[in-house]
Records
---
Amino acid sequence: MKSMVRTAWTLALLLPLALSAKQAPPGDQPLPLAGPRPSAATVQAWQARKFGLFIHFGLYSVLGGVWDGRKITKGYSEQIESFAPVPIDQYEALAKRFDPEKFDPDAIVALAKAAGMKFIVLTAKHHDGFAMFRTAQNRYDIVDATPYRRDVVKALADACARAHMPFGVYYSTIDWHWMHGQYRPDNDNPITPAQADFNVAQIRELMSHYGTISEVWFDMGKPTPAQSARFAHAVHALQPQTMVSGRVWNHQGDFSVMGDNREPDTGMEEPWQSPASMFPETWGYRSWQVRDDLPGKVRENIARLVRVVSAGGNYILNIGPEGDGSVVPYEADVLRGIGAWLKPRGEAIYGTQASPFAKLDFGYATLGAHTLYLFVEKPPADGVLRLPGVVGTRFGRGHVLADAKAVVDPVAVDASGATVKVGNLAGAGYMPVVAIPFEGGLHVRPDAVAPGADGHMQLDAVQAEHFLNYNGYGYDDPPTPYKLRWYALLGAGDYQLTVHYRDAKASARIDVWVDGHPKPLVLPTREGMVRLLVSRDPHAQPWALQLELTPKAPFHKGDALPATITSVELAPFVRRERPVAPAPRIDARGGERP
Ligand code: H79
């Protein structure tokens, strides 16, 4: 069953078309966001950071993926308690051996800086329920239960404050200590009312004693919508500017989180983050992990960082320190390797916007205020980088970052877009970055669908840009589409629009947006088609009609399209005036004149 759910989830990501309204739990409507929330300026600053350090450190680090002399290969090593499984009393007894004398918060902050990372998130409490901070809720914490007796969250929070490094905490809402080992393989446990109270009490501690918390990385469990809202509110009530992760579930977060080691493949309008581990098999320290090909690991993470940033997200890369608190040398080397690449190329990453291009055959792009950055993953044989859809943009002369010798020709623009020829990039290192300044705006026309010879046009769901809601009812709940967008090469005029759909909810209502103007549409049956007369806006961009389908406004975060849209047809609508036939003129002889 679990693998079926997972397959469905993967398919849903690969094939947004497979998403359908019927996958959402029946009758559940996401709660609107209430109470104080981070300001637009906070969200912008959070988004601008782009690259951060995740640290999985806890009692499990002592075991390093080994129990009873066996390498535990199943599950992540931070979850060894459930996967070995380790008898609860023996797991809890690990606290007496937990003495991370080599944990050096200032050195960790310095390492993050050397990697070019702009924020740090530490596991304050993972699923094992062991608090890496002093809690008054029980004695299962690093101060009360270990010989170390020091508050690691506090030590790292203070080191971050000294270095002006934003600091956040990971907090799992499940707790095997509390739940006495009710393990579920996907950690989608319901949260009891008493445990929710316990969580809120610990969240208050974390939000009260550790200075400014940049984000709370809630994870796992299957809280009710009301519990998710309560957890988010517990954070915001004390620190309204703290960003809450989408894994508080039920669309109550301030940013969306992709699956572990996952990236989105569709457009994102929300702030979002992609969480990554050094090796997909574990986040916590695994002593027997094979760590080879250091340069390959550095390149893999540069590529992931670039992909995520070019899609508009933040990349948070994890290290798993050993039980004595030391950072695994290989992992430190990976971070320093990324930093060596990033330092001279930072302007292409930090503070940039997502790529304006849906796809580039040579690699990726990001957008600065006055500069387009091109990341050349696969240098074309002819050295020509093609930028489809660019129109009416005044480019300056480009250059290659960190390589003063590489020659970049002037940008040429023609009907199919812009091209720029780049000289030999052999000296520019891995993933060369070409920076091309522009004046005013950069104008890119997205892919548009052309009509057939009769002016009739069919827009299939596969051709649409899909916008998805993430972090719904738990880790295995697939993302749901809330917007489809197409561009159609149609001129001014009126069009008969036909929406084909299936799996519609009862009395489903959507809005059909043409050139930014909505028109309501009711989907009358469970499956079928429905027509609407629409007009192009003569003041909109003349080159194409923009069509969007959304839930009926006002819709809020988490609402999904109430049906699976399969296609939309557009046909020119000619107003047939009832022909006023000229009265036949009768000649004198009674015959009609021609
Ligand atoms: O803290 C890390 C994980 O321990 C936590 N999220 C990240 C940041 C997490 N807990 N549960 N899950 C993620 C969801 C379950 C994921 C699974 Fe698996 C991955 C189920 C199957 C593959 C874990 C690994 C269980 C079996 C293998």
---
Amino acid sequence: MCEAARELERVAEEVRACRRCPLHAHRTNAVPGEGNPCARVMLIGEAPGYNEDLHGRPFVGAAGNLLNEMLKLAGLSREAVFITNVVKCRPPGNREPSEEEKEACKPFLIRQLRAIKPEIVVCLGRHSAGVVFGMAGAKFSSIMSARGTVRLLRVAGLEVKCLPTLHPAAALYNPRLRGLIEADFRLLGQLASGGAGGLERWL
Ligand code: SF4
């Protein structure tokens, strides 16, 4: 097992035992994240939902199926990437995570980023983009204005290409948003294959 995989396993064990924020009291299973420890692409969502909490795995419900389709559009498989969330335990009733909960969980995300050292970070939704932009000291106003644009950010001591997009669940509630997510994942495909110009530098 490589050092990245060992560190990810240590993080996962700590997450499963974590009581740093009130969300621990509501979880069936914590959801540390999963995927390739050497992934070039890391995807960060918001929080586990009902199915994720039940299985202890990220993006396994309807939003997960849509994410798999989007990854296919980008020419990527689940096995090639690493997927996690900003908070690792399900907020009750699928409410949004609070600022305090996101802050309490951030050290785990930072350790995952440092272990994996991804070239590309895809932020799925406004909570993820808000946390990642915040770590880089970059301005974030809304996911609709940030999505679809790649920025170079310095996050957790790494320089990453950051691509914010909508959370796949948004397209389940509003199918008209699906086209925007598809466009963003096509851009991800170009980025992952070494293409895509027009990077904005936000360092
Ligand atoms: Fe710990 Fe994060 Fe779960 Fe809160 S959400 S209990 S900080 S692992």
---
Amino acid sequence: MARKFFVGGNWKCNGTTEEVKKIVTTLNEAEVPSEEIVEVVVSPPFVFLPLVKSLLRSDFHVSAQNCWVRKGGAFTGEISAEMLVNLGIPWVILGHSERRLILIEANEFVGDKVAYALSQGLKVIACVGETLEQRESGSTMAIVSAQTKEIADRVSNWANVVIAYEPVWAIGTGKVATPAQAQEVHAELRKWLHGNVGAEVAATTRIIYGGSVNGGNCKELAAQPDVDGFLVGGASLKAEFIDIIKSATVKKSD
Ligand code: PEP
């Protein structure tokens, strides 16, 4: 089974109502490959989720950027998976490096979040990735597989999981991984899934790349055999996000 190309837009903590409406208008007017070729998911801040969901074209989908690790309750400031389901939000990003590093979300905690979100019926974009220091010390795969292991230990059905490989040194820095660097880690991750989870999961799970993807570098990255799409930060707020979606056509002849 071919893995459908996936393009996610992570808007992070950005936007006003007017700006959000403008981005949605741009997306709604864009001509992009069909849903059979590319799955597009945009992730606005929580407060804009209902607005974006109500205005966005029906072939694009909406994701939250985080959710609470268990059932909701006395957890001030948190948003539960149940609430997202109640609002009809199908996706959630979990384990983004900004949360792992700034909010000190541990691998185990991210694994718990992924398992709970899946149990509630959400689909999950689970982020993994190494820091520059970790890459330079040669521990990229040890880090990325340790992060993935805490998810794998808690998840039995991978159908609703997309793994986003996002090297921390490439996020928001303008310093994109080379196609060879991305391919190397994606292939290793797939090998890890094959050895530790199973052949079917390794073959079907989408592994997308994130870190300074833009309209200029997306095609070459998309052409890598184990790059199944992108998670895009900065460029997802701009019109070039459309070009990134269109890079899915690189895979069309697969
Ligand atoms: C991200 O935050 O997920 C990301 C990939 O950001 P950027 O594209 O801005 O590097």
